[in-house]
Amino acid sequence: MEYKVLPEFGVGSIIEFQFNCISILISNFLLSSDLVIYEKSEGDRLQLSFLLEGEKIISFDNNSKDILYESQESYMAFIKNFEGFYRITKSKPFREVKIKLSNEFLDQHGLNTGLDYKKITDKNLIIPISNDLLTILSDIELKAIKGLPRKILLEAKVLEILAIQISCYNDLISNSLNIKSDKQLKVLYQVKQLIQNNLDKNYSINQLASEFGLNENLLKAKFKKLFNSTIHQFYIDEKMKRAKELLKTTQIPIYEIAEEVGYKNATHFSAAFKRYYKETPNKFRNAL
Questions:
Q1: Does residue 87 contact residue 34 with C-beta atoms inside 8 Å?
Q2: What is the reported pLDDT for 144?
Q3: Do 11 and 57 contact (CB within 8 A), yes or no?
Q4: Are 6 and 30 a contacting pair, CB within 8 Å?
Q5: Residue 173 has what pLDDT?
Q6: What is the pLDDT of residue 112?
Q7: Splitting the chain (288 residues) into consecutive groups of 10 residues, what average pLDDT does each group show?
Q8: What's residue 28's pLDDT?
Q9: What is the pLDDT of residue 132?
Q10: What is the homologous superfamily of the domain 182-286 according to CATH?
């Protein structure tokens, strides 16, 4: 079902899917005035939210501290009898994917035992959206499949999203990051995303630290703790994965692939590829 924003309030829509104890809300709109939504809901549910673009403030009727929720952030919380307000800012594009899973759904998939979900009022609730999740969420927004195939696809995507998000929270707990603020955590994910989106470049630690206003030693230590990899090794891993994908799925010449993943020439790239995969790019491609 699609709900259109009335012209006097802005442009855009909210699309809702409900099936198999799952509710998915996809919001994509631009408001001409600030919007305050009061919500009072009974019953238990696991709620996942991904704010792809925009800003939202979540307020509660029980005097808990307001939550400022910003672009590229997410949360997963088990909610009981929610009562509060959502405030959405005008003149900023707003895109959110919200998934609500009933207790029945959680029971069906064995997700009600052995997992300690956060409450909506807990500290460290808000975490950055990982690149893996961004890809899946974009897929959900764009899929034009209808009927039963869409329901099957969406349920599979929901389970994949849930698995990744549980893993993200577990990683933060097990790594014992001692990060001083949610903002610092978000910056570390932004560093990771900058690297992944610019594999043709070779940023130094100094450049990354300056770009994000971090101390070099702090950046190196926290990045390794959070992502279980040094920045240098992460760069190499991402370059090699991208190169392998291009070799498998395209006929782009080797020298162009070398440029796309940040090597000066095909010779340097081929040597790096062979060190990583134990065979040259040409041999790998010819064996496909």
A1: yes
A2: 55
A3: no
A4: no
A5: 67
A6: 86
A7: 92 92 94 90 90 90 77 91 87 93 93 87 85 85 69 91 91 60 76 91 94 91 88 94 94 95 95 96 93
A8: 95
A9: 84
A10: Homeodomain-like (1.10.10.60)
Looking at the structure, give the CATH architecture of the domain made up of residues 2-174.
Answer: Sandwich (2.60)
Residue corresponding to tokens 């869409």: 150
Q: Which of 169, 167, 39, 41 is nearest to 102 (CA)?
A: 41
Domain parsing of the chain, residue ranges: 2-174, 182-286
- Tell how strand 55-60 and strand 22-31 pair up: unpaired
Closest alpha carbon to 55 in 6, 15, 22, 95: 95
CA-only gyration radius of the chain, Å = 22
Per-residue confidence (pLDDT) for residue 48, from 0 to 100: 96
Supply the DSSP string of 154-214, one letter for each residue: HHHHHHHHHHHHHHHHHHHHHTT---S-HHHHHHHHHHHHHHHH-TTS---HHHHHHHHT-
- Residue reference for tokens 């961004």: 134
Pairing type for strands 2-4 and 10-19 reads antiparallel
pLDDT at site 142: 65
Count Cβ atoms below 10 Å from residue 98 Cβ, excluding itself: 16
Query: What burial letters (b/e) apply to 263-288, b meaning 16+ CB within 10 Å?
Result: beebeebbebbeeeeeeebeebbeee
